[in-house]
Fold these 2 entries.
Entry 1:
Amino acid sequence: MASTPPARRLVAGNWKMNLDLDAGLALARDCVRELPNPGYPVVLCTPAIHFAVVREALSEQGGVYLGAQDVSRHESGAHTGELSAAQLRSAGCDYVVVGHSERRADHHEAGAMLREKVDRALAAGLKPIYCFGETLEQREADQVEQVVAEQLAEGLSHLEGEGFAEVVLAYEPVWAIGTGRTASPGQAQDVHAYIRGWVAERFGASRAELATVLYGGSVKPANAGELFGREDIDGGLIGGASLRAADFAAIARAYA
Ligand code: PGA
């Protein structure tokens, strides 16, 4: 049965580039109805076109938060198409995804850019949901821990403990994202235990004990309970299944 301490629990939906304005509003309303007072943070990371209407829908009850899927590395100014951390905050976002594998792949996000995004988010009062994970080739070459350590370090090791305390970690093996192929609970737990060890080494044992470490990659109602029941898996970052309120709610309730 579930052993995740309630203080570490969090479930986030990543809508990616899906849903028009009306469909996004309808989904947010359904999520709120399906998840009355979830008891731990539930986050909807929506496209920016939805912020205003979703914020309104979420204001009717507590516990469900708005998140963005990316943030600019720049503070403000002549950066066409970008959204700053302060803009996201002013639109009602509390969380922001940083370093998703789709952005690492499509937009070559890495290294200094990720550090700057994390810093901008923290400075504006946003909690970064920092994503990392290996490809199938890297797993097959036995490089999982090395890749995870490198990706954690590139975005986070410059932080002080206080900044780090605001960060949510999301381990998302690239081969499991959108493929229907989920890491087994044992495979995920092994990596999550390694991640918590990495945090303990950089930021101390008590930060590691409190860190929220999500799993992402084809989480569904049918596998969420078993994943979230593992000692170091605190919740999930949910893509496809977050587009159906009933499935997303079933996943968000899977701790019990
Ligand atoms: P998925 O996506 O649940 O559709 O695999 C997860 C993610 O990319 O965050």
Entry 2:
Amino acid sequence: MLPLHNTREEESKSFARRWFGRPLARWVGLGVGLVVGLWLLGPMFFEWGEDLPFRPRFTSHPPLQDILVGNVIGTHPTMGHMPPPLSPSSLWDQRAAQVRDSYVWAYKEYLKYASGHDEILPLSKQFKDNFNGWRVSMIDSMDTMWIMGLRKEFDDAVQVVSQQDFSVATGIYAPFFETVIRYLGGLLSAYALSGETILLSRADDLGKRLLPAFSTPSGFPKFGVNPDTGDTTLGWTGGQVLFAEATSCQMEYKYLAHLTGRAEYFNSVEKVMDSIYNASVPDGLFASRWDPTTGSPLDTHFTVGAEVDSGYEYLLKQYLLSGKTEHRARDQYLKSIDGIINKLLYISPTRKLLYVTESSYGRISHRLEHLACFLSGLLALGAQTLPELTHKQKEKHMWAAEGLGYTCYMTYADQASGLGPDVVQFSTGGQLWVDALEEWESEGRPGKIPPGLGEVVPAQSSEQRDYWDSSSVYLLRPETVESLFILWKTTGDVKWRERGWEIFQSLEKNARVEHGYASVSNVDTTPPVNNDDMPSYFLAETMKYLYLLFADAEIIPLDRWILNTEAHPLPVFKWADWELKAYNISP
Ligand code: DMJ
């Protein structure tokens, strides 16, 4: 006998059979299944992005557990989010947007013609591998991408960097200093901004491979190291070590030591500092060449320019980076700055421009290098962050910062191209700045403007300028705009921004070529003749400083981030108690 009614189960079965028997329903079912499946399993492969619906997780990278000792994730916050978008209604944000557009265009040209290589040759559309061939233009400017809010460019670069092989051929050496400030600094900064742990892992890999460079009796790093074999070379200086090269790795290695818990990173770079603190140097001024065996100076060439520059920078910056704990570095900074102010600052005979020069074997050269223009920003940063300076000291440091920043800017404004020469030679007859300052003070501060801070009009001829261009090339260097950025942040005076805007416009006019930006061979003639090169620091530093100078948002507050000598921001951190003990730091 047939049942009068189907059971509930049979009913639903026949309903399902009827429903799924239809072609449309089969497709709907498949779609629903896919959505539910993705929802359940998707997070294993993707994560939510800032401005994309999702982006790939980096699952296939080497495990981190062998380097992480538990003091990284969570306790050392990274920025983690992209900066806020620029406002289209603000004049300065619009200017920042122009810098960002220029960066994007130049970086794309690099990717188009020099992908997989270090730098593009923007006239010939060729490339060169001058820094190990590890894509320096990309790694050096990943933090620029983050700061400018370029998510896609950044994520693409992370994917590439995760696969980058930090090897060079046998018999070839990676230049230690450049590799540290550009690659290691670039990776650490990109990690600190984004929180992408693969970048920390790659930084640790690279940092470890470069350690054999420290194998000298003094601990001063050698010029070059083969990251695969550990072979080292003293390089082109014939067994001498340059002060800047030996003392511009502390920020990177100390931050890396803190992130990874590897004591060898800290100990290697602190041994160098011990030699520096113990050396007896006149007036806190450091020689440019040093003996890697004895750890003592080899010359009496005192400058803040080439071969020495960032050595002074890292005294203040390693103190600030490690939460103001390493007092020896601060004390040395203050001593050295006194020496620089008292011995190396001059004002020119007619225009009274303040400049920093060099003393070579007792003779003052009256040269001013573009490289030395970073000093203005460093002085302003120190004046702002060191409460231990007396009112008088702070005032003097700020005056020096503003006077030097102004002169560096004037060396641009005076030229036909609006871009700055690499070296200028001041005419003799200048006066030591501290003497002029003393006279001015003793006369009761006439005019209220200290010597070296008065403004002048741009001048055409060498006589009117008080100097001539002894190297008239502009190498796309950042030091002047770096100081303009710090002066703007520390004084709040918009004139520093305006001066940066003039420089950016000159760059657009005279350094922009068909496939990127190119250095200008003579800044005082127009139309410009360009050289076929675009150094990675142009994308890493010059463009970044201009962007930060114009953007209204406080993207990199100077009390929370310290920029290394290649403009890579690293976050201020505090040593843990065990680190203070292990590294013998007494705050
Ligand atoms: C950069 O690579 C770094 O700033 C370095 O410290 C010296 N100068 C160049 C750019 O001029």
